[in-house]
Write a structure and sequence with these properties.
This protein is an alpha/beta fold and 411 residues long. The protein has two domains: 242 residues, 3-Layer(aba) Sandwich (Rossmann fold); 90 residues, formyl-coa transferase, domain 3. 38% of the residues lie in helices and 13% in strands. The chain has 19 helices and eleven strands. The protein has a six-stranded parallel beta sheet, sandwiched between helices. Strands 7-8-9 form a three-stranded antiparallel beta sheet, with helices on one face. It is elongated. It holds the Pfam family CoA_transf_3. This is CoA transferase.
Length: 411
C-alpha cells in the first residue's frame, strides 16, 4: 500500500487468499480486487460455488462459467481449483498463505478449522496475516453454528418484518440488502482498517464479522422508535418515515411505467397542483395539510394516479423536478443501462469474458484521481488460473502440476 506511487491502484501489492463464496463474501473480495488486490479464489470442481449455478445465464444457456450473477461478484479474481479433502491440498494453500496479506471466508464457524486453516494455525504460517471470518452469527454465542443466507438474515434481524405493504404478509427484499450492502461494505472497511493497522504496527488481525449485525444497522430508526417510544413498528409500504405526503409510486402512461413523487412541504404541494393541471380535488379540505394527506393517503393516491396515468413518466418527472419536487421515473434494468448520467460517468464497462464474450460489468461507484482503480478483468472460468498460480506463486513445474492433477489435489 504505497503512499508515493500514485499511478498504481490503492491495493496494488496486496494478495488475498479467498475462500468466500455466494454473495456477501464474494462481493467483499470483489471490492478488494477492483481496488488492485490480487485475489486468488479457492474453488472446487466437487463443490462448486452456488453463485456459478445462479441465473441469469448468458444467452439462457446454463453452465458454471455462464452466470451473470457470479461474473458481477467475482470480477478480476483468479480461480484456483483445489480439493481441500486431499492430503496435499493443505500444503499448497500454506504456500499461498505465506505470500498473502489477507485470507477470507464466509463459512459457518468450524469449517476452516476442519480444513486445517483456523486462525491460530494460519497465524503460525503468516504471523501478520489479516484473517476475515464473516459467518452469519459470528464465532461465538448460542447461534454461532446457524447457517444462513441473505434472506435468512433479513428475517432474523427484523428487516423482513418491516418490509412490505401494510396488512400483508412480510415481503422482504430477497438478498438485496444483507448480501450486497451492509455486510460486504463493513467487511471491506474492516479489512482496510486492519491493513492500515498492520502497516503502522506490523501486527495482523482476526476479524470476526457476524453478518446479522451490519444488517441490523439498517434498522436504526425502527430500533430507536421501539427503545424510546415502545413502538414495535410494522410494514409501511412506500410511506415516508419523515411524514412526507403524498410519498408513493404512481402509474404513468404506457405499459408498467411509474413515477415516484415525494411532497415534503406545503409549497411543494401547491407546485404539484400546478404541475398536474390544478385539478379541483386538490382543494379538498381532506388534503389541506400533510396530516390530512397522510390520513387519507389511499383516496389521494387514487386521485393522483388518475392524472399521472395520462402523462409520460419522463416528461412528468422533468416538470416536477423543475418545480422543486422530488420525483423520479421508476426505471427498469434496461432503462438503467442507458441512463445518460451513468453513461456520462462511465459506469458500465464491457469486458470480454472467455466463454460469454463481451459482457457488461459495473464500474466502481467512486473515482480516485491520484490512485486509479477499476474492474480490469472479467470473472474467471472455473479453474482458469490453476496452472498459472501453481507456477507463479507455488513454485511448481509442469510435471508437478500434472502429478497433483492426476492425484486429485488440483481439482
Amino acid at each position: 500500500m504505497s503512499d508515493t506511487n500514485h499511478s498504481a491502484p490503492p491495493l496494488a501489492g496486496i494478495r488475498v487468499t479467498d475462500f468466500t463464496w455466494i454473495g456477501a463474501g464474494s462481493y467483499t473480495t470483489k471490492m478488494l480486487s477492483d481496488s488492485g488486490a490480487d485475489v486468488v479464489k479457492i474453488e472446487s470442481t466437487e463443490r462448486i460455488d452456488s453463485l456459478r449455478l445462479a441465473a441469469p445465464y448468458k444467452d439462457g444457456i446454463k453452465g458454471v462459467n455462464r452466470s451473470g450473477y457470479f461474473a458481477d461478484r467475482n470480477s478480476g479474481k483468479r480461480s484456483l481449483t483445489l480439493n481441500m479433502k486431499h492430503p496435499r491440498a493443505l500444503g499448497l494453500v500454506t504456500r499461498l498463505i505465506q505470500q498473502s496479506d489477507v485470507i477470507a471466508n464466509n463459512f459457518t464457524p468450524g469449517v476452516m478449522e476442519r480444513f486445517g486453516l483456523g486462525y491460530e494455525t494460519v497465524r503460525a504460517i503468516k504471523p501478520d496475516i489479516i484473517y476475515l471470518a464473516m459467518s452469519m452469527q459470528g464465532s461465538s454465542g448460542p447461534e454461532k453454528d446457524y447457517l444462513g443466507y441473505g434472506a435468512t438474515m433479513a428475517a432474523v434481524t427484523g428487516m423482513q418484518y418491516m418490509t412490505g405493504l401494510p396488512g400483508r404478509e412480510p415481503a422482504g427484499t430477497g438478498t438485496n440488502y444483507p448480501d450486497h450492502l451492509p455486510n460486504p461494505c463493513h467487511a471491506t472497511f474492516a479489512v482496510l482498517a486492519a491493513l492500515r493497522h498492520r502497516r503502522r504496527t506490523g501486527q495482523g488481525q482476526y476479524i470476526d464479522l457476524a453478518q446479522t449485525e451490519p444488517t441490523i444497522a439498517l434498522l436504526g430508526p425502527a430500533v430507536l422508535d421501539y427503545t424510546v417510544n415502545g413502538v414495535k413498528g410494522s410494514p409501511s409500504g412506500n410511506a415516508s418515515a419523515d411524514q412526507a405526503a403524498p410519498y408513493d409510486a404512481f402509474p404513468c402512461a404506457g405499459e408498467d411505467r411509474w413515477i415516484t413523487i415525494g411532497i415534503h412541504s406545503e409549497t411543494q404541494w401547491k407546485a404539484l397542483a400546478g404541475a398536474l393541471g390544478q385539478p379541483a380535488w386538490m382543494d379538498d379540505s381532506r388534503f389541506a395539510t400533510a396530516a390530512g394527506r397522510r390520513k387519507h393517503a389511499e383516496p389521494l393516491r387514487e386521485l393522483i394516479s388518475s392524472v399521472t396515468l395520462q402523462r409520460d413518466a419522463t416528461e412528468l418527472m422533468q416538470a416536477l423536478q423543475a418545480c422543486g419536487i422530488a420525483a423520479a421515473v421508476v426505471n427498469t434494468a434496461a432503462d438503467v443501462i442507458v441512463d445518460p448520467q451513468l453513461v456520462h460517468r462511465g459506469h458500465w464497462l464491457t469486458l470480454n469474458h472467455p466463454e460469454m464474450g463481451p459482457s457488461l460489468y459495473n464500474a466502481q461507484p467512486f473515482r480516485m484521481k491520484r490512485a486509479p482503480s477499476n474492474v480490469k478483468q472479467p470473472a474467471p472460468l472455473l479453474g482458469q488460473h490453476t496452472r498459472e498460480v501453481c507456477r507463479e506463486l507455488l513454485g511448481l513445474d509442469e510435471n508437478e502440476i500434472e502429478v497433483l492433477t492426476q492425484e486429485g489435489a488440483l481439482s
